[in-house]
């Protein structure tokens, strides 16, 4: 019997209706008072003592009950029990009202506490309250509250309460998350909406995509989303004639969404993912506009698809709606691609054609100016990168701020066609395109005429010199000077090239170029002879000094005082005092002033001190910093890519073998084509494993690094095929390289193909390989968050 024992205070959560029914049926007398939570307190104190004492932390309706009889509960019998029961009851409807009031008054801390109370007491509140919480937290633009809102969405979906989540509030939350620099939760909400068949219109999700594309992880996720959404529409899977498909058709990717995703890929270097999007375009019926044509040109150039660029050139030349900026970008891509393939003839011919057209345009403009005088103040000048950057607003840096004013949910909800979001997507796209245009370096425009920049001369000269084509280089530079006459001989491209060769110690190449200029009848300034002469003297090359002096005298070149001083010092060091005295006498007779020509020294000093770099300084930096490019790799990569795209993997393997035998080392692009080719066929996991082993050995033996796109394709193949230990190796490599991994994609993939794997108890008898495979799978599941 427990009648003689004191009972400690206990609290039991009960429903008010259940409690009143229980007590009424038992014949107990009840009294209602105002308190906050529903609690039952058993105490041995008298009722009057309990009521008179303060009730801590209680604000709702309560019930105080005096128990004077005993009652039986299962095997426990109470003959006599004197105590009290305090029931603190809370009405969910009143709690919802308090949450709404707190939301209206922007008391977010109170709303969260009240929501948690409701969650513990009666689960999620009604749909209107949940959605109001989501939109109010989103409108705050405060990251902690945005994370709480996203947590609410995740919890509701986990508890199968997704019917409480409205389509428009979720779109709004996803948009704000993307705008505040949180692309992963923003993309997850979009994916959940599609999974719940609450399809967001493309005018809405393209704005989300635009803000996601301002960060590297977001740009990668944007491309993945386009691929996932586009897959639903491939090859006419959705019949647009059926009315039931209208919401799904409204979600179909359009040209703006495609432009956003592709530009983001270009700006953050995931160009092979961008090419996958291009391959998908005709299968979902997306037509290219002028922006998309130029973006395609950038992608083909980055991936070394020269033939595709040549095909695209016909559309570019025939187009009447392209701007000067777009023409400039296309021909910059084509010129860069020629250089990648080592096609110096094609590249140099492009430069000469541009120079000739620019000269013709200048002559025409000069003639027109004589007939019709033009106000110089209103005349447009050359378009520079700096001026473009100041005129155009945007760029990645300017668009990342989450402090920009955003739509309130009321405005968002009233805009039923999402026109404001569509306008914002176009605005961000324009900023991304400006950022892409800022990367054009080889070509500029002046009054709508394409002209080569110093950068293209630098790259061409470097390529000519590395391939030993000194004569061809001289011929090109001489033709270029005839088309684009410099203001002075000292400022010509050829002079800068010779000076650069001298600075690098390539004296023979410099002398060869000088000879080619002299034979072509091009008069060269004395500064070049002086520079080369002093370099020969410093290198103690007596024969070359004599030959150069003879050439200078034949050309009628008058050397400056510094050259004479170098010659005198050189002859004295050789103990040829007679020749030294002869040179000094020649200098006196020529009345050479002591402050002679010093342009070259000043230029070198200016470059060394970080001053304004001219052509010579850029050439020096290019040659010293950049490694020689193996143009043969691009040719073989194109061959392998073609076979892999056509799923002719045996031919691709033969091409890879031939590539290696010719001494061309495969790079990340080569391996990516092979892996995606095997994945497209399906079941070729052993071959991918062999490639992975080769990649690891190359990575350990050389400085070659594998990028995110390649490792992501390898990881996808291993997870799909159940090669979990290999998948864990790829994950480790990616995490060490701090690469972004789309865990949602791999979680979905694992659940699709391996959901029931290793779910039961561990078998008592297992081989060593089975144990390792199980451990690898459990490690991957833990990393994916599926435990």
TrEMBL record:
NCBIfam families: PPR (TIGR00756)
Gene3D superfamilies attached to this UniProt entry: Tetratricopeptide repeat domain (1.25.40.10)
Protein name: At1g68980-like TPR repeats domain-containing protein
Coiled-coil features, chain-numbered ranges: none
Taxonomy, superkingdom: Eukaryota
PPR-type repeats, residues: 525-559, 560-594, 632-666
Organism classification: Eukaryota, Viridiplantae, Streptophyta, Embryophyta, Tracheophyta
Ranges where the record places region Disordered: 378-403
Keyword RNA-binding: no
InterPro entries found in the cross-reference section: At1g68980-like_TPR, PPR_rpt, TPR-like_helical_dom_sf
């Amino acid at each position: 019997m427990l009648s003689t024992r004191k009972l400690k205070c206990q609290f039991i959560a009960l429903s008010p209706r259940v409690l009143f029914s229980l007590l009424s049926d038992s014949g107990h007398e009840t009294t209602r008072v105002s308190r906050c939570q529903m609690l039952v307190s058993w105490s041995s104190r008298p009722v009057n003592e309990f009521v008179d004492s303060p009730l801590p932390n209680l604000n709702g309706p309560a019930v105080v009950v005096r128990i004077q009889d005993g009652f039986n509960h299962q095997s426990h019998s109470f003959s006599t029990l004197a105590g009290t029961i305090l029931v603190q009851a809370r009405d969910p409807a009143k709690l919802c009202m308090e949450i709404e009031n707190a939301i209206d008054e922007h008391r977010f801390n109170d709303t969260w506490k009240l929501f948690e109370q409701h969650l513990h007491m009666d689960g999620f509140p009604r749909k209107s309250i949940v959605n109001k919480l989501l939109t109010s937290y989103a409108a705050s633009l405060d990251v902690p509250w945005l994370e709480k809102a996203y947590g609410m969405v995740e919890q509701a979906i986990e508890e199968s309460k997704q019917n409480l989540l409205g389509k428009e509030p979720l779109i709004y939350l996803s948009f704000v998350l993307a705008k505040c620099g949180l692309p992963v939760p923003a993309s997850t909400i979009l994916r959940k909406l599609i999974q719940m068949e609450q399809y967001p219109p493309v005018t809405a999700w393209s704005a989300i995509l635009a803000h996601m594309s301002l960060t590297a992880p977001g740009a990668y996720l944007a491309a993945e989303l386009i691929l996932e959404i586009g897959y639903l529409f491939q090859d006419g899977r959705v019949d647009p004639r059926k009315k039931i498909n209208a919401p799904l058709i409204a979600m179909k990717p359009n040209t703006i969404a495609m432009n956003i995703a592709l530009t983001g890929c270009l700006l953050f270097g995931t160009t092979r993912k961008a090419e996958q999007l291009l391959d998908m375009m005709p299968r979902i019926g997306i037509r290219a506009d002028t922006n998309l044509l130029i973006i395609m040109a950038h992608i083909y150039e980055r991936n070394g698809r020269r033939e595709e660029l040549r095909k695209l050139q016909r559309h570019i030349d025939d187009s009447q709606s392209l701007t000067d900026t777009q023409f400039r970008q296309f021909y910059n891509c084509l010129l860069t691609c020629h250089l990648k393939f080592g096609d110096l003839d094609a590249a140099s011919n492009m430069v000469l054609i541009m120079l000739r057209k620019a000269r013709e345009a200048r002559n025409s403009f000069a003639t027109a100016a004589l007939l019709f005088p033009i106000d110089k103040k209103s005349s447009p000048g050359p378009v520079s990168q700096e001026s473009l950057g100041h005129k155009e607003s945007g760029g990645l840096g300017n668009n990342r701020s989450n402090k920009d004013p955003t739509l309130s949910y009321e405005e968002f909800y009233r805009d039923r066609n999402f026109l404001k979001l569509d306008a914002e997507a176009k605005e961000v796209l324009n900023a991304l395109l400006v950022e892409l245009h800022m990367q054009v370096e080889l070509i500029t425009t002046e009054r709508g005429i394409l002209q080569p920049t110093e950068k293209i001369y630098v790259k061409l000269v470097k390529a000519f010199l590395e391939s030993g084509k000194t004569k061809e280089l001289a011929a090109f530079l001489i033709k270029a000077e005839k088309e684009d006459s410099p203001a002075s001989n000292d400022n010509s491209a050829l002079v800068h090239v010779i000076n650069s060769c001298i600075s690098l110690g390539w004296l023979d190449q410099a002398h060869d170029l000088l000879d080619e200029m002299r034979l072509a009848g091009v008069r060269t300034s004395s500064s070049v002879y002086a520079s080369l002469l002093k370099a020969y003297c410093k290198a103690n090359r007596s024969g070359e000094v004599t030959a150069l002096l003879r050439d200078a005298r034949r050309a009628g070149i008058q050397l400056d005082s510094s050259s004479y001083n170098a010659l005198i010092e050189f002859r004295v060091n050789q103990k040829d005092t007679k020749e030294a005295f002869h040179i000094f006498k020649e200098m006196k007779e020529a009345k050479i002033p002591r402050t002679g020509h010093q342009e070259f020294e000043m230029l070198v000093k200016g470059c060394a001190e970080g001053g304004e770099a001219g052509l010579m300084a850029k050439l020096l930096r290019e040659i010293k910093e950049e490694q020689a490019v193996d143009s043969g790799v691009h040719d073989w990569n194109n061959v392998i890519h073609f076979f892999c795209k056509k799923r002719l993997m045996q031919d691709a393997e033969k091409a890879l073998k031939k590539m290696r035998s010719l001494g061309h080392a495969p790079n990340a692009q080569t391996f990516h084509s092979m892996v995606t080719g095997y994945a497209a066929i399906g079941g070729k996991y052993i071959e991918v494993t062999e490639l992975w082993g080769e990649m690891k050995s190359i990575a350990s033996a050389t400085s070659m690094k594998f990028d995110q796109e390649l490792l992501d394709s390898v990881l996808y193949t291993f997870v799909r095929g159940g090669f979990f230990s290999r998948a864990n190796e790829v994950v480790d490599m990616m995490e060490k390289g701090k690469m972004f991994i789309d865990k949602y994609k791999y979680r979905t993939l694992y659940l699709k193909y391996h959901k029931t794997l290793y779910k039961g108890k561990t078998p008592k008898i297992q081989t060593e390989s089975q144990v390792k495979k199980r451990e690898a799978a459990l490690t991957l599941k833990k990393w994916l968050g599926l435990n």
